[in-house]
Amino acid sequence: MKKADKIVPYIMKGLHKEELVNDVRFEIRGTKQEETFAQFSRPDSTLYKLCEIASEDPLLELFFFLKPRILYKPLKDYPITLEYPLIFNFDNEFLGSLLDEPMKTKIEDVEKRKEDAEKSVKDFSSRAMWKFFSVAVGDKQVTQRLKRKKLYVKEEEINDLFSSLVTRHRKQFEGITKDLIDIFGSLYYSLEYYSPLIEAFKVVKEAKENLEFLSFAYEKANDLGKQLSLSLAKLIAQRIFRVTTHSICMECVLKKELEPFSVIMKYPMEPDFPSRCTKCGGKTIFHTISIEAPYTFGPLFEENRLPEFIVGFSLARSEEIKKLYIHKKIQVLTKEGPSPGQQLNIFAISRENKILIVEITTSKDLNRILENFNKKIEALKGFPYDGLAFITPSPMIKEYPRFNKARIFGAKHLPKIWSHVEFFIQESSEK
Amino acid sequence: MEEQALHLLKKIVNLRETSLYTLTETLAREKNVSYREIFDETVHLVYLLASNNLVKLEAVEGEDGSETMVKATTLGETYLKSKVAEKVME
To answer: Domain count of chain B?
Structure first.
């Protein structure tokens, strides 16, 4: 059976599906968020392709469990930017020393340099504004216009008024432009070096945790940076996302007092993550991966729903599963009428007609995981099912613990989640 | 496009804080069109407003799972007021 025939990611509003499993009739409806999944009705859509590619790539499967910073930019086709901090190689001793007093002083010094650069830009702006208005106030045409009774001025009128003002006082305005050239240096250093470096100091712990999490993709993780380049290239080639990377050396400034080595790659076909600094020879290079996505992906990212779909597509690889509904509301139809609806991440039916429920959480915190797990078990009381697979990105869960009909899976199992769940189904069927 | 975005901003300011889905439902009812017909366009406009910092988006855990909440920013409210004033002055 083809994968696409097994997965039901979207049910149009007002419609429903029915499944009869071992004399139990289930009614499946879309959820409140359903329209966000409408793109799944076309296997050639970018969202469908993304889930297909990510579900067959162990690194991408994990990557979309990472929590990005979401930014909105006024770009027509790609208004959403997801930023992921990452670090692939690092000098352990250097990273450990970041919290030591001498290093803290150096970081504070970088922060001061950034603040100074920003201050000089602000000073220039107010100086330029002051100069501009002093010229404008002394200009006859401008003052005459302001004396008119009608105070409201249309935008086009303002533009005309000021462009003619600039033409009349060209020499004075050229002075302002000359000052602007001097300010460029400060602005450049602030934007290019200091801001990303300070950001790197703030989130380096998160970047290291991201590396540790992604390392679960392969048993022997050789050059994870190269592997991620190749994985991201698959998405770029399909025009799913546009990717920009910014790599900056953290050791240059703090160890050698050099301007930091910094590389920005805008929209490469295959991103590259330098593993060594060509300036100071250090290996602690901080990377920011910015993924630009179309607006149609927005609510999915906002609500962190992509992992559900990627896991769903991955599970569809298993021969044991014959039907799989992702993020749907399920009701049991009885003689007395329908039961209260259960909103489930994945509702799957096995080849042996067993009902498997898969719940996905993106929290790594063990206490939170157990709390959510218990809530789900409680919510499922009275609902007919044979197995519950609780999928988490926790690095702490090494073996999958079993609680009656349920098992909890961790980061270690994510790259081949379909085979682990397949084993779980077989195990449940034997009982 | 700009007119439509402005109309949507007005709606968001009036509703104070609303989920993306409730907002679409309200608009569909008002325009007497199907939810499906205007969902894409609403999402597009919401992201246009967000990318200009006129609205803020945040996922909030609701009864039916997490939902994207839309709220006008202070800049959005000020912008709307200035646009309304501009129309009155004209």
So the answer is: 1
